Amino acid sequence: MSGKFALIIGNTEYTDPGLAQLTAPGKDAEDFARVLKDQDIGAFDTVNVLVDEQASSVIEAIDEFFDQKKPDDLLVLYFSGHGIRDEIGSLYLAFKNTIRTRLRSTAIKSDYIRDAMDQSRSKRQVLILDCCNSGAFPQGTKAELGGSMGMTKAFQGYGRFVLTASDATQFAWEGDKVIGETDNSLFTHFLVKGLEGEADSDGDGRITVDELYDYAFDQISRVTPKQTPTKSSSKVEGEIVLRQSTRIEDIKPISLSDDLITEIDDLRPYVREIAVQKLEKILKGKNLGLARSAREALEKIASNDDSRRVSLAATQVLDSIRQIEKKAEEERKAREEAERLAILKAEEERLAREKAETERKAKEEAEKLARAQAQQETAEREAMRLKAEREAAEKAAKEAAEKVAKEKAEKELAEREAARLAAESETAREKAEHAAALKAEWEAAKLAARKKTEREAAQKAENEAMELAARRKAEREAKEKNAVKENKPSKRSWLTFGAFGGGIITLALCTFTALYLFGVFEVPPVATEGPVATEFPAPTEQPPSTEQPATEAASSGPYECTDELGCVTIAPNEPIHIAWIQVVSGAVAPLGQTNVNGGQIAVNDINGELLGHPIQYDGEDSLCNSEGGQSAGTKISSDSTVVAILGTSCSSEARSAMPLVSQAGMVMVSSSNTNPDLTNPSHSDHWQGYLRTSHNDLLQGRIAAEFVYNELGLRTAATVQA
Prior knowledge:
Rossmann fold; 4 domains; single chain; 8-stranded mixed sheet
């Protein structure tokens, strides 16, 4: 789909004192851009305006303007300002930084613009030059450098119109005053008026480049004989339409014929009725200027004619026209919407192509850099190898020379014997190394086989334990179900744990964690993806009953919670929920994994059940950083069934998790946090409900220092940061 694009350039200020300061070009650029942008006039898709810019910036803008256009795109380039010719007749457009003695570097040569237009794919181009030469001085004289500017000749080319204010570039100025009563230059003033509708001479709603030029030429000729606009065209295909209007309201009216006006004003109703019929034909004709006049006449008849029949006829004609206009307007809007969607789709496709091209180029550049880097590294390694070989050769040559000088007196037989012994020694050494390598490989394979067997045995034991737990759980549920059927009261009861009561359970878990850390126990690792729930094997023997005290407590009346942080009530048959916040992934996963495994041992030790309630043991991966601690703390603290928490692995996790845990009324016990601030009541990192079983860094550091100093007797130490 074709587009309409315009680049409007105006320049009023000049640093060269020999170039007069202007006022009209700024207003010219503003007004000409306004009519092109107006959707009811020019309806251009893009209108860019540059005022008082440096020549270099304008060059870039012109290059971008003519680049990447389609053959049927309409391009309008407008310039208002000074035009200068050098001593050999070349035309230059002057800008803010233009210096007349350095035109090649501070102005834009006409050849550059012509080349840009020639190289553009667009075949519909309009160049408008409303510019003066350098002689527009405030004193009132015009100095024409190089004589006639010859504008149209300088910009002849294929598929374009060139409009100029005059062939000698007479700007619409006399000294420091504008010709005529206008703030614009005379040429631009009539271009704007023409596009606003005055140039539509045939009343068809279309204003072509030819019509616009003819209108401006006629109007300027009436105002002053000193300015003669020019127009040239080169291989233009069809008409170039600058304005297309289908609304009668926007069309310049054309007077009706005298005979028709006489019939409209006739005193006889039947004559006026015939006039209405003629007006209807004109209204439906192609001449929109006459159609507008016909419509205005019909509206007047419909509202003012004293004959009801004539008035009704005019009204019916207008109603039918309005219906047609309404339908046409709806179709126009539909077309515009379809065009808009097509433009958006085309733009999306263009952006996608540009993105793909950019990615391709980036990939090629990355591959190129990688190849260059690889070649450089290869060259460096080769250089190092050659250097090492050269140094080794030099060293060997030096040693050989010294040896020859030193052992010159030795016999050839001794030299051969020494060489033989050396060869035998090297062979023996290689055999010994080979035997050692074979032995090491055999021992490694043996160790791997043994560990594999141990892992398989452990997995098998775990599977058997889980099957046994599931079977016993099913048996317990069956017994309870039978007890209900036989109207026997269940031993399950409601439990209420205070926050610190839950902490005591968690302290027990931490104790087993410590035993696990010292190698007393070994359990399979817990899965590390997402929240982890651990199933525990049922005991091989029925444990001593722990449910009776809870039943008695439940029968003695409602439990009153006096715990500082709050209590958690557990319904019959519901689990006691103990959660963990540990690092079980990443480089330091073994730290958290051992803590989780230690807690699992503790739960297994009591057969996965406490006071007649099963124990639910699961948790969140905290990643051994503040963000992980906050995320895990948020999830755990939002679970109101949690009695207590085993955690965290790292002190940084505790800092961000404890505010959430404490505010949720929970207790968290850590077996590995060592930061002193966490249990310092006066520090902001200390929160109610935080406990730990590990020593803090201050105590551990002091004990280690005393041992090194007192027991080992060392007086010098060095620190190594890994």
